Every structure is written in C-alpha cells, then in structure tokens.
Amino acid sequence: MQSQINDAFSTLPIPLGKLSIATYDDENTHAYFTGTKWNEHDVLKLREQHSSISFFTPEAFKYYLPAFMVAELNHPELADIIAETLANKFIHISVSELLDIEFSQDQLAVIKAFFEYCEKLYDDEYFDEFSKAVNKIELVINGS
Q1: Each residue of 44-76: b (16+ CB within 10 Å) or e?
Q2: What is the per-residue pLDDT across 122-137, written as a single tens digit (0 to 9) for each?
Q3: What is the per-residue pLDDT across 14-46, written as a single tens digit (0 to 9) for each?
Q4: Are 33 and 64 in contact (CB under 8 A)?
Q5: Domain ranges in the chain?
Q6: How far is CA 114 from CA 5, 26, 32, 78, 87, in A?
C-alpha cells in the first residue's frame, strides 16, 4: 500500500504560507512542518505531532496526510494513536469540506484502502471509527 500512497501523493507541491489554522496554539504544527516534504518525517516525530492533524489548513492536511499513513503502515506500535487520530479527523470533517480539499480519485481510493486495512488490523468491537471513516470516504468518492 505504501507504493500506492507514494504514487497518489507524489506530485503535490509543498504547501506555502501558514500550515495551521488560526488558533491560540497550533502545538508547533507550523514550525515543525514548514518547508518539509511529507516523505521525510520520522514516525516518532509524527507521533509527537499527531495533534497537527487537527490544526492543519486543508492544503497542509492533504499534503502531510500520506506521512501519517505511511508511519502507521510501517511502524504501527511506534505510530501509536496516529491511525485513530486520522480516522477521527475524517469522521468529524464534513463531506463538503473534504470535497473542497479536492482529493483525486486515486488519493481517495488509497485513503479508503488505508482505513480498511486499519479496520482489519485493529479489529475491535468497541472502536468503529475506521469503518465510519471508510463510509465518509465513500460519500466523498460518490460526490455526496
């Protein structure tokens, strides 16, 4: 799946300008990610920066999303709560906001596959956020 992620996100330009939404504290999001490529981050640093997922601007979220997915795929124990944080982001963002991010069909397909993988890997009857994230991605794919 990592090669599909690389293929789907490889042509995105590094976002310029402010990387985090206006808030009193962006948990170091802007300072840490500014000028970095999504594929050059260490899993432990991403784990420390997992709250950035909530603070990213839409452009930064789209660009750095694959870093977090790859970290989870390659090092699930070290990634710790990254997958859950991503799932919650997708659950709580509206379909219209996701459509505004303008993910390509390839990107949406790989994001959906990522959450399906997590759903199988973390089979837990009390945690259904991965299936909810899959459902949200399907709505976006269908343009709802």
Answers
A1: eebbebbebbbbbbebbbbbbbbbbbbbbbebe
A2: 877 657 899 999 999 9
A3: 999 889 987 777 888 989 999 999 999 999 999
A4: yes
A5: 2-141
A6: 9, 26, 25, 17, 10
